[in-house]
Amino acid sequence: MSRSLMNPSMPLDTLILASGSATRAAILRNAGLEFSVQRPSVDEAAVRDSMISAGATVEAAALRLAELKALEIASRKIGSIVIGADQILECDGEWFEKPGGTDEARVQLKRLAGKNHRLISAVVIAREGETIWRTTDQATLRIRHLGAAFLDRYLDMMGDRVSTSVGGYQVEGPGAQLFEAIEGDHYTILGLPLWPTLGFLRRIGVLEE
What we know:
Helix content is 35%, strand content 24%. By secondary structure, it is an alpha/beta fold. It has a single domain (15-203), classed as Alpha-Beta Complex (Maf protein), CATH 3.90.950. Strands 1, 2, 3, 4, 5, 6 and 7 form a seven-stranded mixed beta sheet that branches. The protein is globular and about 55 Å long. The mean pLDDT is 93.
């Protein structure tokens, strides 16, 4: 039985995901890709602050972060094709990061409740220390007005998991109950625009046509 849907002529160690995200790894693995994982050491907060100071758009910042992750790994893994990704949440011009714990998640969710916010997800693919492809996609989400008792129970249920996703929610789990409307691709919301990524990997022969 085939272990994956990779092009069988490609070496098994060709593809690398430059990310510590278990969700992104699961997206690619569930799509039939075989890859290794290397966690980059990019100081994301410093890069994000620098981009904000420079007046960059959210899309430009997400792309820059994804690119830095991919290039860091690609520069020392010659011959590999490296996928880097990043996601930024923007609401009313403010950029949100992963909450540091339950208290921060509570504050974030209260600020997002009753408003539309955007999730901008970027993917960059690098090889031989150079960027060979990039893309962004976005989704618009609206968190409903949250009752205090419900929010307490939700945060108690989530525990430390609130720190694993920007905004303090996971739409693929109990976080689905936070929302009243979502517009956009499911994989973009999870942090990796899958369809264009698979399309490019087919074009360069990592996946079969």
